[in-house]
Amino acid sequence: MKAKATPIDNELVMREDDFIVSKTDLKGILTYCNRTFMEFAKYEESELLGQPHNIIRHPDMPRVIFKLLWDTIQSKKEINAYVKNMASDGSYYWVFANVTPVLNDVGEIVGYYSVRRKPEPESLQKVKKLYSELLSEEKKYANKKEGLQASEKMLQNILKEQGKSYEEFIFSL
């Protein structure tokens, strides 16, 4: 396994017809990833399978977005979100992700499936501003839990001001 990368200012941009696909178990451990995932993450399949999906988490991502994602998919609902990921060399790439719980015949969650595509540039500019504000709020607190709660409150207030659910907000960008 490669050592954890240090972020660098090198953006990898997805092509219009790219789809990054992955599957995980209930704990977010990768069980499948397609070639496009490996290309952008800059890992070999053997380095990814069996690893936590957050192996590609970029430190610029506010934790509240992942809390919202997990809360949503664990309640058997799909979610769409913009995510900044980090490749093994420290490069970054933005995606528009759709994450869906995989249910068995009796309706129990048995894993998660995610498809990511290239985000719309205009929407991404708005997301970058929002994420920067949320991350800044999280970093005001030495206690990570308090920081997460503060950014969650901030996000809820933004949604309330907009009069939209998170899903409506994301698709309105």
Question: Care to describe what's here?
Answer:
This protein is an alpha+beta fold and 173 residues long. The protein has a single domain (20-172), classed as Beta-Lactamase, CATH 3.30.450.20. 39% of the residues lie in helices and 22% in strands. A five-stranded antiparallel sheet has the order 2-1-5-4-3. Strand 3 and strand 4 (92-103) form a beta hairpin. Helix 4 (121-139) packs across helix 5. The mean pLDDT is 96.
Keywords, please?
173 residues, alpha+beta, Beta-Lactamase
Low-confidence runs: none
CATH fold type? Beta-Lactamase
Q: CATH homologous superfamily?
A: PAS domain
Number of helices: 6
What amount of the residues lies in strands? 15-25%
Determine Rg (CA atoms, Å): 16 Å
DSSP strand tally: 5
How much helicity do the residues have?
25-40%
Adjacency order of strands in the biggest sheet = 2-1-5-4-3
Question: Structurally, how many domains make up the residues?
Answer: 1
Chain oligomer state: single chain
Q: At CATH's second level, what is the architecture?
A: 2-Layer Sandwich
Terminal CA distance: 38 Å
Give a short account of the largest sheet.
Answer: 5 strands, antiparallel
Mean pLDDT: 96
Broad shape? globular
- Give the C-level CATH assignment: Alpha Beta
| Strand and helix order | EEHHHEEEHHH
Query: What structural class do the secondary elements suggest?
Result: alpha+beta
Write a compact overview of the structure shown:
The chain is α+β, with helices and mostly antiparallel strands and 173 residues long. It has a single domain, classed as Beta-Lactamase (2-Layer Sandwich).
